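Hello Y.,

Per our agreement to keep a running log of every chain we model this quarter, I'm adding this entry. I've kept the format consistent with earlier entries: sequence first, then predicted structure.
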Amino acid sequence: MTTRHFSESRLEKIEQALREERTEAEARLAEHREGMAEVRTARSDASADDEHDPEGPTMTQEWSQRNAVLADAEAELAEVDRALARLADGSYGICANCGKPISVARLEARPTATLCIDCARLAR
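Predicted structure for the entry above:
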């Protein structure tokens, strides 16, 4: 099965939504990378004795939190890129598990979905 079960106008809307999501994900990723650079600079500053700062999180905590958020942003961007690739190769909207079409409602709610709702429930 391929994306042929979508109309051309629906495919264009899906692609536009994915491209907008990609642009937003890239912006968040750039913002998080900038934040990581700031923490990296602060951590390298020998005068920053953050382990004894009662006012907030330590640099190590800040690094860990920002690193996790950065990883999430990178994963989101990769997920959008994979959805765009599926759109290009004709496999978008087909469940990766059972091969049935993924409902339009599910794809509208989660454009990067790779599983139909039934398979997604089973995967939990």
